[in-house]
Amino acid sequence: LVALEAVKWLAGQRYPGQRALWTFDSRDLTGERHAVRARPQCASCGDPGLVRERTRRPVAFESRPKSRTDGGGHRVLPPEQVLDAYRHLVSPLTGVVTELRRDTRGPALFASYRSGPNTALGRRGAERLRTALRSENGGKGVTPIQAEVGALCEALERHSGHYDGDEERVRASFRSLGGKAVHPDTCQLFHERQFADRARGNAAHGPFQFVAEPFDEDAELDWTPVWSLTRGEHRLFPAALLYFGAPGPPSVLADSNGNAAGGTLEDAALQGMLEVVERDAVALWWYNRTRQPAVDLDAPGDPWVAELREAYAGLGRELWVLDVTSDLGIPVYTAISRQAGGPREAIMLGFGAHLDPAVALRRALTELNQMVPAILDGWDGGDDPDAVRWLRDATVATEPYLLPAPECAAPAADVSSPDLLADLALVRGRLEDAGLEVFVLDQTRPDIGLPVVKVIVPGLRGFWGRFAPGRLYDVPVRLGRLTEPHGYDDLNPRRIFL
Predict the structure, then answer these.
(1) Which of 64, 167, 314, 451 could form a disulfide with 420 if both were Cys (CB 3.0 to 4.6 A apart)?
(2) What angle do CA 13, 18, 20 make, to 5 degrees?
(3) Residues 390 and 369 occupy one common structural domain
């Protein structure tokens, strides 16, 4: 066969199959095609300025009427179309994504997929978290196709967020840039006491909770322009805050908060905005340990939710959902499940946010469905010390904030619209009304094509342990959850390990 293909080539015969790597299995005489793609941004055979040009452009959104508004979210493109468009990027030999496989550890109703190593962890995280819950990329959904596409998009999102060296950068110190630069402390939000105690804290917790060194405002480093939707101009962020693996000082760390992919730029940006809103709301609840009202799971009249409750009961697990919506007024829910009557409760959580509360509920439940199969498979926290302590010790008696408040949550209104452009304007308006500035970095890679963004809203919390003054202390009081702000020592000592 190899000789035959060589003869075809020498004879001038050309066909699409030659633009691929082929493997031949001598056991069953079958062949498999592995796509090979060109890199338009290649410095040798393409235009190495493509990524820089994209970054320099203003981020502009267009009208995007939705084609679907089901439990997988409000999307412009159906999942089947997205899978067909990017399936060629999956291959164990030539692919950006090494695999797409269903997670078979849970019931079939737990539609979830896995798609290879989570490269957002970086080398430090990958070395320390080989068996952590988030050591792989994953996708969730109400249907298998939703989960499969979600897993594919998450892997491509993480790949697109990696530093390649062709990104737009300027070398300078923060102090020399003046008002053009955004201080990384407004995004990383470490408390002074965390800096002072970083050696002990970093040894006690997993890489997700890693505390950076204090930022030196006179040190020179690379900065990348990011478009401010609020101001209509570019401002500069440390490149090492934006891209996984970018060179930079140990005072700046990239994470996946706000990174999102979608069928269109608008789809990706909306998902990124909803993620930063979700994680901020979860942090406000979790670290202040306030009791939140339950969501009435009978109210939506959703047969899938009813079937899911039966599935959890069949596993001997209780299931409930809390409304942790913040001052931004965008529905955010936490789905919680614990083992009933066993030696340990093995409590797991899932989070979801959306302008449509029915979608927010399904997102929280499908994320929980991603997490629980690991418990069913005997996972005990692996090499994540925060997860180990949680699964070993946490119960609803020791963590009463996991239980619903006596009152039930009032039904939330669906404020979504038929067009993603209007949804983006609504979420952006809620953030800006709260005094927050909204940034979007287009991380789409020319050789991948899937729209990917990083949304940054300085001042919003991720749900990892970041305890600087700000919303974490002030908003619960404004919402009436606390009569006065908690002190640093009053915050939840347990860290979210998801």
Answers:
(1) 64
(2) 175
(3) yes
CATH number at residue 179: 3.30.40.250
- pLDDT score at 72: 66
CA distances from 255 to 6, 195, 208, 288, 476 (A): 47, 18, 8, 23, 25
Cα dist. 343→240, 339, 395 in Å? 44, 9, 11
Residues 419, 424: Cα–Cα separation, whole Å? 9
What's 65's DSSP letter? B
- Whether 352 and 254 share a structural domain: no
Give the chain's domain count: 3
Rounded average pLDDT per 10-residue block, the chain, 498 residues = 68 71 76 83 93 97 88 84 96 91 92 86 52 73 96 97 97 96 98 98 93 98 99 98 97 97 98 99 99 92 94 97 98 98 92 97 97 91 91 96 93 95 99 99 98 99 97 98 98 94
Question: Are residue 378 and residue 442 in the same domain, yes or no?
Answer: no
Tokens 């849970």 found at: 106
Residues 183 and 250 in one domain: yes
Burial readout 258-296 (b: 16 or more C-beta within 10 A, e: otherwise): bbbbbbbbbbbbbbbbbbbbbbbbbbbbbbbbbebbbbe
Sheet-wide strand order for 348-353? 317-323, 332-339, 348-353
16: domain range? Answer: 1-36
Confirm whether 78 is domain-assigned: no
